[in-house]
Amino acid sequence: MDSSRRKRTFPRVSAAMIALLVCCFQPVSTGLPRAVPGERAALEGTAQTDPGSHLTAAASGGKLSPKEEKKRAAERAGSGSPEREEPGNPVKAASRGGGADAGLEKQKSRSQPEPLRKKKSRPKKQAPRGPVSYVWGGAHRVTFRSRVRLTNTGGKIAKNVWVDLPMLENSSPYQQTRLKSTSHEPAYMTGRIGSFGVGDLEPGQAVVIKTDYEITMRPVALKSTNKTVEKARQLFRLSSGSGSCGDQAKEFVRRCRDKGIKARLVNGYAGTGGGKIAPGSLKGRRHSWAEFYLDGLGWVPVDLTFNYFASLPHASHVVETYADKSVKIYHLGGKIDVKWDNEILDHV
To answer: HSE of 187 in the Cβ direction (CA atoms, 13 Å)?
Structure first.
C-alpha cells in the first residue's frame, strides 16, 4: 500500500503523559530572579530609559497601549523605583523633588550664582564736637639774640649811618615774646621796624647792633573740633606734598582763603626734625609754617613739613615774623657791608 495513503493514527495520550510534556517544555531560566509586580515595574522602567538593555524586548513586549503606559507609570511612581535623571531635565527632577516648580527652582539655583553679600560698613569714628579750645603743654623759655654787624669796607668815611632793623613780632598764642635789651637805643619805631643811628664809621671800622628777646614757647593742640577745623583739615591734606616748607605753607594759606577761612604764613625757626629747639646758631634752621583762624579762639598752627595739624607737640617753633623784611642801611660815603645772624643762647 502506498505510504502516502496510509491512514495516520495517533496514539492515545494519557494525563500522565501530558503532565510529563508540560514539565519537559518549561522555559529555560535566564539566571534572573523572578520579579514581583513592583520589581517588574522597576525593570520595565529601566528598560524604557536604557534602550540598549537585553530586558527591553522581554519587559515591554512591544508597544504598549496608552492605558497600559499610564498603569505602568503609576506602578513606577508607587514602587519608588530609581529613575535615571537626565542632566538639565527639570521634569524628572521634579518627580522626586515635589513637583515641576521645585525642579525648576533647583535648576535656577545651580545655574545662577548667589549674589555677593555686602559687608556692613562700620560707621567712621568722628572727632568729638563741641566748644573748641586749646590744650597746653609745659612752658619753655629761651633767650633769642639777633645781631647785625656793620663794617665800612671802603676807603672813605661812612657818615651818618642809619639802620632800619626788623624786630621780632608775635601774635601767636603758643609764644610770648618780650624785648629784654638792645646795645643801641632805637631812635623810633615804625611798626616792627626799629631805626638805629650809629654815627660815622671810619674805613675798616665795624659796629654791632645786638638785641635780646625772652621767648616763652608752649606745646599746643586743639580740644574738640567744628566745621571750620574739619574743612581746614581737608585743605591740609590737599596741600601736603613735595616742595619747600614755604611752598607748602603758602599753598595751604591760599586754599584756606579760597574757602573763606582766614589764614596766614609764619616765618621763623624750628628745631631739628620738628623737635625741641636747642641752643646754638640758627643758621640753616630757617622755617615756614601756617596758621588758620577760629572765631572765638584765635590762630591755630599747622606745619605741613612735619605733618602737624592744629598742634605743635614740642617747644620747637620760634615766630620771627609774618612777612619777611630785610635790613636797610643809609649812609654817605664809604662802603657798608652787613651781616645778620640769630642764635638761641640758653634755656631758662
So the answer is: 10
Count of the separate structural domains present in the chain: 2
Residue 158: strand pairing partners: 201
**What percent helix, strand, coil does the chain show, rounded to 5?**
25, 35, 40
CB neighbourhood size of 113 (10 A): 7
Residues 207 and 341 placed together within one structural domain of the fold: yes
One domain for residues 343 and 235: yes
Domain with 243, as residue range(s), is 134-347
> Tell me, what amino acid is at 189?
M
Q: Within a domain: residue 323?
A: yes
Question: Element (H or E) spanning 209, and its range?
Answer: strand 206-217
Nearest CA to 189 out of 161, 169, 216, 173 is that of 169
Of all helices (H) and strands (E), which one includes residue 228?
A: helix 227-239
Residue in this structure with the C-alpha cell 505510504, named with its chain if needed: 3
Contacts of residue 326, Cβ cutoff 8 Å, sequence gap at least 6: 166
At 36, which amino acid appears? V
- Reported confidence tier of residue 71, pLDDT bands at 50, 70, 90: confident
Which residues have CB under 8 Å from 8's CB, separation 6+? none
Angle at 88 between CA 87 and CA 89, to 5 degrees: 95
Among the listed residues 74, 66, 50, 47, the one whose alpha carbon sits nearest the alpha carbon of residue 58: 47
Looking at the domain assignment, is residue 102 inside a domain? no
Q: Residue 263's CB: how many other CB atoms inside 10 A?
A: 22
Please give the Cα distance from 183 to 198 (Å, whole number): 11
Task: Tell me which of 236 and 40 has the higher pLDDT.
Answer: 236
| C-alpha–C-alpha distance, residues 115 and 112, integer Å | 9
Confidence (pLDDT) at 228: 96
Q: Which helix (H) or strand (E) holds 117?
A: none
274 pLDDT band, cuts 50/70/90, is confident
* Number of helices and strands in the chain (H, E): 8, 17
User: What are the φ and ψ backbone dihedral angles of 204, each rounded to 5 degrees?
Assistant: 85, -10
In a domain, 20, yes or no: no
Question: What is the spatial distance between Cα 59 and Cα 66, in angstroms, rounded to a whole number?
Answer: 16
| Residue of 22, 16, 86, 21 lying closest to 48 (CA atoms) | 86
Q: Which helix (H) or strand (E) element contains residue 217?
A: strand 206-217
